[in-house]
Structure formats: C-alpha cells, structure tokens
Amino acid sequence: MKNTSPFLPGLHIQSLRKKPRSSAQVMADEMRYKIEKSLLGLKACFGRFIPEDCLENNATGKHSRHRIFNKETTFWAFFSQIIDADGGCAEVVKKLKTYLDFKGHQPLSASTGSYCKARKKLQETDLVEILEHTAESFLVNDDDQPLAGRRVVVVDGTGLSMPDTPENQAKWPQISSQKIGCGFPTMRLLGCFDLATGAILSHKIGSKKSHELPLLRKQYDTFKKGDIFLGDKGFCSFYDIEQFRKKGVDSVFPLARRIPKTEQTCIKKLGDNDLIIHWNRPAWYKKAPLPKEEWNQLPKIFILRQIKVTVDQPGFRVKNFYIITTLLDPQLYPSRDIAELYYRRWSVELFFRDLKTTTKMDILRCKSPEMIQKELLMYFIAYNAIRHLIYEAAHTHEKDPMRLSYKGALQALRQAEGYFNHAADSLKEIRRLRRNLHDSISTQIIPYRPGRSEPRCLKRRPKSYQLLMRPRHEMTEIKHRSKYRAKAA
C-alpha cells in the first residue's frame, strides 16, 4: 500500500516504521562513514602502497565494529603520528578532531584514551604483512642496481632506547653498571636494506648483548637467489659465506680475524692487489652455530677473491684494507667496481640516520614490549612509503633516488598532508597534488661531495646539568652548579 501522507513520507504503513533499506544502501552508508572519519590525506597519498585488505575491519573480535577509530582510521592515525614533528598521541587526536569539526560531524573528545586502546588492537601480523608489501612493491630497473644489474642487500645494526618501565626492562635490560632507575632499556636492531632504493626489507631485534651475526641468520629468507650481501667486518664468517652460497647469494665484506694472503700464497693473481685465494675451514668451537658433527660437514676449503683497497683521501682513518668476496669473475665484476660498492656500504648508516634522527625513531615512546614492536613496524612502514615517493619522484624527473633528500621529502609531505585532506573527494585534485609533491621532492638534491670528512663529534656543547646517578627520590641537586669547575688533573 502506497503512503501518500505529506507529513510522514518515509513511514512504512504496513509495519508502522521507516521503510527498510536495501543491503546496497546499508553498505553505502557504512562506506561513507568510514571515508568521512578516516585521515583521507595520507590514504590519498600512500593508499596505493598499502594493501587494502589488511585495513578492513575484522569479522569478529577486535576492530569488528564501526566506530570512529576503526581499523583503517587507527592505522592512518598511527602513520600520521610517526611522520609528525611532535610524534605524540595528543597531536594526532587533535588533528582528527579538527578534521571532523571542519566536516561538521559529531565532535571528538580530545582525550587520547580511545586512540591508544585502538592502537593496541592492531594485529602485529597485519603490520608485518603491510611492511613486506611496501618492501616488495618497488619496481627497480636493472640500470638502478649498484652492480651488474643485481640487487644488493646491505646489512648493519644499531641501538635504540625506550621508556623505563618494568616490562621493557625485563625484555631489553639496561646496562648492568647503571643503578635501577638511572638508565633506560636498550635494544639491538639489525636491518636489511635494499641499496638501490633505501627501503628496509626485514629486521630482527634483540637485547644489548645480542650479536649481529645471530640476528642476521634469522633473516636468511630475506635474500633471494642472485642477490649480493654487503656488510662490514663484523659479518666476516666462514659459516655465513657457506649459507649464502647455498641460497645462490654472493658476499662482499672486509677481511677480519684472518691474515691477508700474499701473491706467494694465493691461487691466482688477477691484477694488482687482486688475488684468488683459499680459506680453510676453521676448527669447531663451543659457540659455533652448528654442532661439531654438522660443522665438520662444511666444505674444507673456500675459493674466494681478495682485493686490497688503498685509501688516499685525506681525513680517512684507514689507509688500506682488504675486501673478501665470492664474485670471482674479474671481467663481470672489476676490482674497482667492487671497491666502489663497498664504499657505498656507508649508505646504510645514512638510512639509519633517516630513521633515528630525521623520523625520531632513536627513542621509542611506547611503554610495553608488545606496543614497542608495533611502533617499530609503523616506523618502517612509514619509512618505506616515503622511499616510494622519493623513487617515484626520481624516475619522473630523471634523478638519482639516492641523491634526493629524505628529510626534504618528509618536510614536503608534512606540508602537503593538510591539502590532501581537503582534496580527498576529488581524484583529479589528488593527482595534481601528487605531481606537485613529486616536483617538491625532486628539487631537494643532496650535493655530491665524495671524500667529505664527517667526524662523529658534537660542536654544540650540552647544558651543564648533573647526571642522574641515583634514583629520583634519592637524588639531590647541587646548588649553584654553574659556579663549579672541574679541577685540572
């Protein structure tokens, strides 16, 4: 029966209620709700790098109901928190509150409680899947690869600190020489980076006592057949050369813990300071990665290549060193190219600088080990997403991606985020903003300064505060500390 009443046009007379909506209308309303209450600017900029199925609400359990902080909104809010200059929870909540107020929606509380609870509900497995997708989705040309069209994976470790909580101390204890309450938990992180793009491929974490070699062995699956492993002298290991050889991966690293071979003891001389040598299998030891029986099954002899590199650039600490590699063909891999490849190993230190100093990952903020690991994953996801932008801008403007400034790209992104929010409903406007963002990134070119001396020293003196040598409730501050001077020795 048709309702012709002009006063109640939506009333369904048979059931005395509003006319039931179709399933298509319900789905459209839910989609509109999700779109209006998400950080559309970041999604418009980076959504093509992030798999959408990982951000869909779960069928049951955590993140299954449609709320303001649903799974997608929580992820992009966490992403925004990572790239913000402030980096606090309150900052991103205020950003979302301002956006909802601007759109005329129900006001959002300024409290960070709901957002922090939603962050805890994010599944670590989803974040790992997103990180793997951002690392594998780079389309790298062979011409961009550092050596003979092969992917080079550069590896190095670093240290991080975090809030002093009992949970963090139990997982990553502080230095034993420090008193309780006077230090911070310390983490050891080992990362594998693609040298052509700067993207982080995988990582493993441990305590401050964790050596880098065991952390590397947990990441063997990161390497593919045809890759080249590039590391410092801490990775000079007979066992690891064999494991990489089984996977079809070549190795390049400096000589350590062995005496260099000479022309009299080498197998063949390829050129000046370029020798084919052999390594004998070392004797089994108690801390070996394999039992004695399995260790004795390793090859007795390795055929390797030893290249002596002379450093004639003033300001360098080392005057000469030796490179050991499994790249034996001097025609395909000239000694000069291998030396230049190892010279580029320093790029991994710059990648960590971009993460720790520029993106402020040096001191983590979360107070539980579970959230610390999620925070790390979000840092790496945001870092890889920005590396995607840099790589796109480099190819669009025919630049070297390693010469474009990561900090410049992050600054350009921070300024463009608000404009992406306003233009989220217009695909044409989003494309225009992307082009402008690429143009801005491409202009931030790092000067080429080979051999530049960059000593690890601080020019700006810190303030003359006391060091916390006792717990806070026992510490007494010295009055007029600025008038005291250390006596001469």
Gist of the model:
The protein has 489 residues and is an alpha+beta fold.
What does this protein look like?
- The protein is an alpha+beta fold.
- The protein has three domains: 1-30, no CATH class; 31-126, no CATH class; 129-284 and 294-358, Transposase Inhibitor Protein From Tn5, Chain A, domain 1 (Alpha-Beta Complex).
- The protein contains 15 helices and eleven strands.
- It has helices spanning 23-36, 40-46, 71-83, 89-103, 113-121, 124-136, 166-171, 212-217, 238-246, 292-295, 335-343, 347-358, 369-396, 406-422, 427-442, and strands at residues 11-12, 17-18, 152-161, 186-194, 200-207, 228-230, 250-254, 268-271, 274-280, 301-310, 320-325.
- The strands form two sheets. The chain has a nine-stranded mixed sheet with strand order 5-4-3-6-7-11-10-9-8, with helices on both faces. Strands 1-2 form a two-stranded antiparallel sheet.
- Strand 1 (11-12) and strand 2 (17-18) form a beta hairpin.
- Helix 2 (40-46) packs across helix 14, helix 13 (369-396) crosses helix 15 (427-442) and helix 14 (406-422) runs antiparallel to helix 15 (427-442).
- The termini are far apart.
Protein topology:
Blueprint lengths: L10 E2 L4 E2 L4 H14 L3 H7 L24 H13 L5 H15 L9 H9 L2 H13 L15 E10 L4 H6 L14 E9 L5 E8 L4 H6 L10 E3 L7 H9 L3 E5 L13 E4 L2 E7 L11 H4 L5 E10 L9 E6 L9 H9 L3 H12 L10 H28 L9 H17 L4 H16 L47
Parallel strand pairs: 3-6, 6-7
Antiparallel strand pairs: 1-2, 3-4, 4-5, 7-11, 8-9, 9-10, 10-11
Helix pairs in contact: 2-14, 3-4, 3-5, 3-13, 6-13, 13-15, 14-15
